Amino acid sequence: MKEESTQNKIKDTALSLFARKGFEGTSLSDIASGVGIKKPSLYAHFKNKEDLFLGVIYKVTVDYNEFFANEAERLNGESPENQLYYLLVKNTEYLRNDELGLIFKRMMLFPPESLREEIYQMFEKTEEVMKSVIKSILMQMDRHKDWEQVFDAYLCLLDGVFEQVFYYSPEEHQKRLENSWSLFINGVHCRTEGK
Amino acid sequence: MKEESTQNKIKDTALSLFARKGFEGTSLSDIASGVGIKKPSLYAHFKNKEDLFLGVIYKVTVDYNEFFANEAERLNGESPENQLYYLLVKNTEYLRNDELGLIFKRMMLFPPESLREEIYQMFEKTEEVMKSVIKSILMQMDRHKDWEQVFDAYLCLLDGVFEQVFYYSPEEHQKRLENSWSLFINGVHCRTEGK
DNA sequence: AGGCGATTGCCTACCGTTCGTTAGTTAGTA
DNA sequence: TACTAACTAACGAACGGTAGGCAATCGCCT
Predict the structure, then answer these.
(1) Contacts of B106 in chain A (CB under 8 A)
(2) Quick check: helix, strand or coil at residue B155?
(3) pLDDT tens digits, one per residue of B69-126
(4) Is residue B47 part of a domain?
(5) How many domains does chain A have?
(6) Which domain holds residue B143?
(7) Residue A28 CA distance to nucleotide C18 C1' (Å)
(8) Using an 8 Å Cβ cutoff, are A101 and A173 in contact?
(9) Which residues bind DNA (chains A, B) (predicted)?
């Protein structure tokens, strides 16, 4: 039951290395020795380095999509505010804990030049899912027309928090998240009341 | 008057390449051919690749520090709100237009492993300057104790906008910035009135 | 002012290493 | 028997970096 296939062991090791050192910064020797085999043996499982890399990235996007959709569904009964809040928190936790988060971020911001298009294509679906989930939450919050402002601001909040995962300790980061969130939701309520 | 020194031409070319392709993804041959000289000639100007790279990064931090301090000073007469807003806008423009912004971001998030410590050390000053400038603006806005919440939220806003520079077209990005800002400043005012 | 040694800035040629990748082979398995 | 997954050996290319040479320029001394 434990016996993980070599194929998967390669992907896991590659994921970890690609996440920490990037595509160009990771060599096939590194990966092979991490797995415990010799470099040419990798070619029994993958066509070449790019193929391996894209396979890893694909796995990452699928995992993230699943995570996000599951989280969203789990929150279905909650108030819209709570949904937004917990989505923010869960998203942060995911991005912080796993190397998945690391490579996700790296590839969104600095993909290897030669693979940029293919990578962006993979992330397109992710972005779509995220946006439609968030939009539907906002629509149930208040139905007036300019939900778009809140939408943009929430996405900015997500991105800002996403970014800060790297700079700060979990505790410090949590504090900043809370503060940013409070001001955000304050702004949302203030605006709706002001109408 | 035009004659730029080779030394500077190297740094400029290196900056551009490092920004777009990263440290590992950029070769000395690339740089040399961009400058119009041969690879070994680079060694008349720099000890090695790391030395060149750190020189570039140093220049970048100095330039950014100057920019930020100047912008802040130029806004001295304005209202705190305006100061915050224009700082956000100017910062965004800076990061979008120049390759300086690109490399700045890349190095803060994904520095080459072997140089991480030195790079972070360089950015320390930058962060300090930014924080003290923003803090002083907030202090003149309202003097009650929990300016820290607004501080955290503003930094998150900065980071979020910073991040989004990459995904969206300038027009789209501008729209998102406006919306995020509106909600932010809404939240700030609502909070102070609520007290 | 004029000669001159040292220095600068670039060159060609080349080094050792590591890179991604291929070829050919062998041991185990079904 | 045929396939799988590993191996050893080695490939050409590209990497960062060095050695040595040559022409222009600079600083200094008479």
Answers:
(1) 109-110
(2) helix
(3) 999 999 999 999 999 999 999 999 988 877 888 898 899 889 999 999 999 999 999 9
(4) no
(5) 1
(6) 59-194
(7) 11
(8) no
(9) 27-46
